[in-house]
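User: Could you check the structure of this?
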Amino acid sequence: MQQRDDDIYASAPLRRLLDAQTCALKPALQRCFGTHALLLGAPCDDVPPALPMFGCWTSLHLVSGGYRGDLRAAADEPLPFVDDAFELVLLRHALEVAPLPASLLDEAIRVLAPGGVLALTGVHPLSGWSPWFYWHVRGKLPALRMPWRLRHQLEQAGLAIEQAQRVGSAAPGLKTMWRALAGVFGGGYVLVARKRRRLATPLRLKPAPVRVPANGRLSPGTRRSSAL
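Assistant: Sure, the predicted structure tokens are below.
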């Protein structure tokens, strides 16, 4: 497992980027509803967003090759939850610190209930944040994930993309740009996708036989082919 510099997510620039991502996600998350939600993040002090529709949150963060928080588990193993366990799964920069990012995304999709929402945030590789990020971690982290690759992986898994945008300033130390410019040059990204519900297979109904009354008359609308 590659180690990371935990202080980078506590730095002022990344805190501002996290705030911008939270604001961008807020409208979509407020439309979610359910009982159980999962937060898996890189910041050790990350807390779930205030969503009144969710009464039970499971919060985890990745550190030293494992999950810490509400439970402890190895990060290179499947998530310790049953299939379809959560109506909302929020990955905050988790793919940047995961030993197996693609496997983690697959696991997040597995534990997401049909109709549920998966939200992703991260640092955009094609931005002024990329060299700053790698300089601080000294190349200890896996490569930053391209949002279009993540989007393709989600669509291949059967999820429908509901939101995909860049947010935040173009580089650390710069003030947040106008929304139009942030959407093109923003240093972070947010992705929101919904897991499609499984199609219901209709049952093939068999017509019930109709008994003819003693007087030989059928009620209106009854087919004689169904009568005995």
